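Reviewer 2 asked us to include a model.

Predict the structure of this chain.
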Amino acid sequence: MLNRLWAFGAGILCTVQSTFNCQLGHYIQSPTVSALWAFIIGLIVLAFLKNNNWRHLRIGIHLSQSWFAGLAGAAFVTLMSLLILPLGPGLTVSISTLGVMIGAMLIQQFGLFQSKQQSISIYQIIGVIGMLIGTLIIKIY
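Predicted model (structure tokens):
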């Protein structure tokens, strides 16, 4: 239950962080630089966390997963920074969350990236359809 609360909080932080990045990108007239600031500050904060050390960093730099994760994170943060202003935070985060859910379902269904393969359930499909309907309602109103 606690992990689910943490996940919920992470979703809220995603929206807040994306909105701040959008504002910063607007003020400095560069969404990519605002995304860079998010990574610089994140690097500083993460560097001081308990379990991080240079040995782990040296190991990670040689792994393709490090580079793919970094590229995906940079693309996500930059795209969110670019899209919140024209679409608004509600629609941007709703569409993003819908993409997260569909992506997670595909990874789960096919066992991609060495994840545990598990069939998509009817409840997941109903949930995504519900999210799609909610997103359309947000867009209409």
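The chain has a mean pLDDT of 90. Residues 24 and 91 are 19 Å apart (CA to CA). We have added this to the supplementary material.
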